[in-house]
Amino acid sequence: MPLLHISLRAGKPVAYRQAIFDSLYLAMRDTLDVPEGDQFMTISEHDATNFRYGNAFGIMRRDDLVLIQITVFNTRTTAQKAALFRRIAELLGKSPGIRPEDVFVNVIEAAKENWSVGHGLAQFA
Amino acid sequence: MPLLHISLRAGKPVAYRQAIFDSLYLAMRDTLDVPEGDQFMTISEHDATNFRYGNAFGIMRRDDLVLIQITVFNTRTTAQKAALFRRIAELLGKSPGIRPEDVFVNVIEAAKENWSVGHGLAQFA
Amino acid sequence: MPLLHISLRAGKPVAYRQAIFDSLYLAMRDTLDVPEGDQFMTISEHDATNFRYGNAFGIMRRDDLVLIQITVFNTRTTAQKAALFRRIAELLGKSPGIRPEDVFVNVIEAAKENWSVGHGLAQFA
Lengths: 125, 125, 125
Prior knowledge:
Chain A is an alpha/beta fold and 125 residues long. Helices cover 29% and strands 28% of the residues of chain A.
């Protein structure tokens, strides 16, 4: 039950934004072993004046930059997280076609007891 | 000083969204012992194309799904978090009337020294 | 590579919102030693009905309240975080001129291995 918040510049076509969702879901299926239908994601579209980025770490970013914040269980290994990052960049590169320079991902971790995916229960505690 | 970010589909009436705020605040008062006026919450409304969810974990969700991300002190017990989840689903079920299947909650934890609620001070460090 | 999500009431002029970005970037340069160009920030503007706050902890807040959530490495000291809070309030007070009562900051921590700032790599693992 990763929860994803995706931020990008406003104005991309519907198909482009759906491809972002699809690629992120597939990347999680491939590397985090999430079950079918385990996709909970929002996209926030920002005007240029509400979206600020820089070129730190020697990476020349452009307006297509996508900021992805993923909250997951605190049970993933370093290798799993590295695989997730690789797969996300790979899949977003294919569809909708985002340059690898423009894929920024941050993972936040939350214990199993910190999730309720319905019915007011802590299903994984 | 929980900080809450709530994501849902766009188009709900004002009273509906105010009821979400009210119920979440009451749930925190009841289960986390937060003081009066300790409510810091935003709602982000998303078009269908910017809001993706699935039916993982055997729960049939609908477009009324509410994704609630709550950042709190890292001092809460498992029992407190479970009580919070229960109370949130219960109160949102009463007002504005959200099905328990459509209440998704994630808790993120931050140390006391990680909060400044005004004046540039770390009031709880 | 702090990642910042800033929430405020809708309607502030462009220059005001740019000043928020500038002051936050400068505060991070001053207190967290982030490199040049290390700014990744979004602003979400909310209607009154989607922005709820209270006066907890004896602070009389107004509609100019800015809720700032900063995700950083989990390597910062308590002193660094306190300095960050002070500097943010100081700089936002100067430009765009926000009352210190209206500056709310929460820091979330993520391990170095939890970041990919481009190319699908975990640059800091």
